[in-house]
Design goal:
single chain, alpha+beta, seven-stranded mixed β-sheet, 37% helix, globular
């Protein structure tokens, strides 16, 4: 798969990827009904479309010409030296093939002035935590998410860049 900037024509495939990946990852944590509710809101076509034109951001897909196997979205924070990796998902059928690494590499290359890459991960998502730790991220504490006050704890990880 090669990594490229996402476009309008990718949004339906990205939504499908996100819905399938979220159900595979989070049904055991939140329950299938809650995952459907979350993906309907967070991963709607309108929500994805708004990312395409967000300033100081990069929306990427991993594409093999037949399917979108992964996606990433990152954006500069108020401090342009700090980038927040909002999303990095690889379809379960495509995991452990280097796609996550390729997406992460492209995110890092997309923000040459950045000094820190930050990501937030659910504490219950052990596979994601292991992935980020293996890529040089270290713990930066817990984060409160008011939309999920009763949900699982969110952990913050950071990686120095540059």
């Amino acid at each position: 798969m090669f990594v490229r900037t996402a476009g309008e024509r990718d949004l339906a495939a990205v939504r499908t990827l996100l819905v399938e990946t979220w159900h595979a990852t989070y049904d055991a944590i939140y329950g299938a009904a809650k995952v459907t509710e979350i993906t309907d809101e967070w991963h709607s076509i309108a929500s994805l479309r708004s990312r395409l034109t967000r300033p100081n951001s990069e929306f990427l897909v991993a594409d093999d010409g037949k399917r979108i196997g992964g996606m990433a979205f990152a954006a500069a924070t108020a401090d342009a030296k700090v980038i927040l990796l909002n999303q990095l998902y690889v379809h379960p059928d495509c995991q452990r093939r280097g796609i996550g690494q390729a997406l992460l590499d492209e995110v890092e290359a997309s923000f040459p002035e950045a000094r820190t890459l930050r990501v937030e991960v659910k504490e219950a998502n052990a596979a994601a935590i292991a992935f980020y730790r293996s890529k040089g991220f270290s713990s930066a504490g817990n984060t409160a998410n008011p939309r999920e006050a009763s949900g699982p704890t969110t952990l913050s990880f950071e990686k120095p860049l540059g």
